[in-house]
């Protein structure tokens, strides 16, 4: 249990650092924080606060897909969402000093952040201690209808991009926060998570990865 907790906490921190790194690269923000980035621009409130609200939204979707064990899911996930929001704001401050000077450095930062994001997602799912609602939604869909974790997680990212683009056009008249960095994260983070799930499975063979 203690090892699983360490893997989970590692994943939570790594996910936060990954998203923050992509954001500070200046080529758009990560898909998980894309809507939060837009809402922060609109209101000036913390991105971590809106990351929390985004996770609450996915929790509601998860319950709509599979409402079994509602209270257990709520106790396990919602407090983690709150902690994640705080850790995310800390990660944003920690990575604020990372200021790329060239476009190549920006792309490298995006790739680093995307890799960290995938590692964070995979670590939290593999630990099976608690998960964030976007991954909980994916697992609920897998449980009810089947599918691949990597592909479904990528679908969640694409959904966030679509919603943010529509809201951005309605509020600002242009697309805010969405650039090539966002697209790289949307396309690659789920697949990278799938790879890291297998890596964790090799390190701890008795603890089978999701797929």
Describe this structure in words.
The protein is mostly helical. It has one domain (2-201). The chain is 78% helix and 0% strand. It has 8 helices and no strands. Helix 1 crosses helix 4 (70-94) and helix 6 crosses helix 7 (149-171). The longest helix is centred in the middle third of the chain and has 25 residues, at 70-94. The protein is globular. The mean pLDDT is 87.
Task: Record keyword descriptors for this entry.
mainly alpha; 78% helix
Strand content: under 5%
Based on DSSP secondary structure assignment, what is the total number of beta strands?
A: 0
| Class from secondary-structure proportions | mainly alpha
Low-pLDDT parts are: none
Q: Per the principal axes of the C-alpha atoms, what is the gross shape?
A: globular
The figure for the number of domains is 1
SSE topology string: HHHHHHHH
Q: Termini distance?
A: 22 Å
User: If helices are DSSP runs of H or I spanning 4 or more residues, what is the number of helices?
Assistant: 8
The major pleated sheet works out as: none
Helix content: over 70%
> What is the C-alpha radius of gyration, as a whole number of Å?
16 Å
Mean pLDDT level = 87
Task: Provide a compact summary of the structure.
With 211 residues, the chain is mostly helical. The chain has helices spanning 2-24, 31-43, 47-65, 70-94, 103-127, 133-145, 149-171, 180-203.
